[in-house]
Amino acid sequence: MSISSRAPWLAATALFSAFAVSACMAAGTPPPSGAAPSERAPAQVGAPVGAGPFAQFIVKYRDSSAPLKRKDLVQARLNRTAAQVPGKPLKLTWKHRMGINADVFAVEPALDAAGAQRLMQVFAADPDVQFIEPDNHIALDPIIRGPAIPGPEVRNPEVIEKSDK
Q1: How far apart are CA 48 and CA 119, in angstroms?
Q2: Most CB contacts within 10 A, which of 97, 111, 121, 139?
Q3: Contacts by 136-139 with C-beta closer than 8 Å and gap 24+?
Q4: What is the DSSP annotation of 94-137?
Q5: What is residue 48's three-state secondary structure?
Q6: pTM (two decimals)
Q7: In the record, which residues are listed under signal peptide (predicted)?
Q8: Considering only CA atoms, which of 53, 48, 44 is closest in space to residue 117?
Q9: Over the stretch 34-88, which tens digit does the pLDDT of each residue have?
């Protein structure tokens, strides 16, 4: 690959890197792990997409917290949090830990948007929680929407060979 053909790729990579570094700097640095809970930044709360139902959430506990250090403590913390949610009783069930050390859990019964917001606010009040959000499933839709454009007819090569003989 010549230098001139790599230039756009290098420029795009440099631009992306600059945006990534800027985003990290704008996010700030977390307080030291020994910081008192009152000195910690409040937990980030994700927004529910749509009206629901919301049956699965992602919670990330802070690096210094017991639930992050020991996965076996997560279910007990979920049970404690579920007991604090106003309204009808909820069952929170730990499912798995993601690669980013965030935990995925299921909620029974599934919640509407208001119920999801109540649950996330209870999690956000816990000083050990870094962020909480619904596990919103993301789908990729086609970029261009419109009538289908007819393409060239595709023919089976075996049929072409036999018909040409």
Answers
A1: 11
A2: 111
A3: 136/46, 136/48, 136/49
A4: EEEE-TTS-EEEEEEEEE-HHHHHHHHHHHHTSTTEEEEEE---
A5: coil
A6: 0.60
A7: 1-26
A8: 48
A9: 555 445 678 888 878 877 789 999 999 999 899 899 888 999 999 999 999 988 8
